[in-house]
Amino acid sequence: MTAANPAWTLLAVDDEPNILAALRRLFRATGWRILTAWHAEEALALLATEPANAVLSDMRMPGMDGVQLLERVSQGWPRTARLLLTGQADLGSTIAAINRGRLHRYITKPWNDDELVLTLRQVEQNQQLEADKLALERLTRQQNDELKVLNAGLEARVALRTEELAAANQSSSSATT
């Protein structure tokens, strides 16, 4: 597995201080930058100034719940991965949450530390692969544009040389007759 990217940022959102503290401790060894927010409004304000690669939000919070928050994150920061922590066993509400918030994944409480870290490492790797793919596509477009210019120049030189040869051939034919 590759080393963690220190510029990679995770925003954890939960109204329970002990959960945020546990998440901070868990992710400390990853090398990621960890931001925390106590509620959805704080998370949105933080995202406006501190972009994050992923948001890990609790489902049940006062005011705006985790699904509503992740739905807003999906609209405002579509490239930010969205994960939901939920203690709910209701499959219907979990499916609705996945669809509304366009979630990468939902994680049940209590979570397995290794599984949660692995999930976020996969998110990090997928985002890096996507960034690499986009960079390669940009490079390919740039190189194709350069090739078009070179081909146009080559075609112009071939056409000019063909005219020169035709003129020389015509001159040579006229001189011999």
The amount of helix comes to 55-70%
Radius of gyration: 28 Å
Order of helices and strands: EHEHEHEHEH
| Spatial strand order of the main sheet | 2-1-3-4-5
Q: Would you count the extended β strands for me?
A: 5
Uncertain stretches of 5 or more adjacent residues: none
Beta-strand residue fraction: 5-15%
Query: Alpha-carbon distance between the termini?
Result: 80 Å
Structural class: alpha/beta
Shape: rod-shaped
Q: Describe the largest sheet.
A: 5 strands, parallel
What is the averaged pLDDT score?
87
Number of helices: 5
Distinctive features:
single chain; 177 residues; alpha/beta; five-stranded parallel β-sheet; 5 helices; 14% strand
How would you describe this protein?
With 177 residues, this protein is an alpha/beta fold. The protein has five helices and five strands. It has helices at 17-28, 40-49, 66-76, 91-101, 113-176; strands at 9-13, 33-37, 54-58, 81-86, 105-108. Strands 2-1-3-4-5 form a five-stranded parallel sheet, sandwiched between helices. Helix 4 links the parallel strand 4 (81-86) and strand 5. Helix 2 packs parallel to helix 3 and helix 3 (66-76) runs parallel beside helix 4 (91-101). The radius of gyration is 28 Å and the shape is rod-shaped. The model has no long low-confidence stretch (mean pLDDT 87).
Which helices and strands, and how do they pair?
Elements: E1 9-13, H1 17-28, E2 33-37, H2 40-49, E3 54-58, H3 66-76, E4 81-86, H4 91-101, E5 105-108, H5 113-176
Helix pairs in contact: 2-3, 3-4
What is this structure, in a nutshell?
61% of the residues lie in helices and 14% in strands. The protein has 177 residues and is an alpha/beta fold.
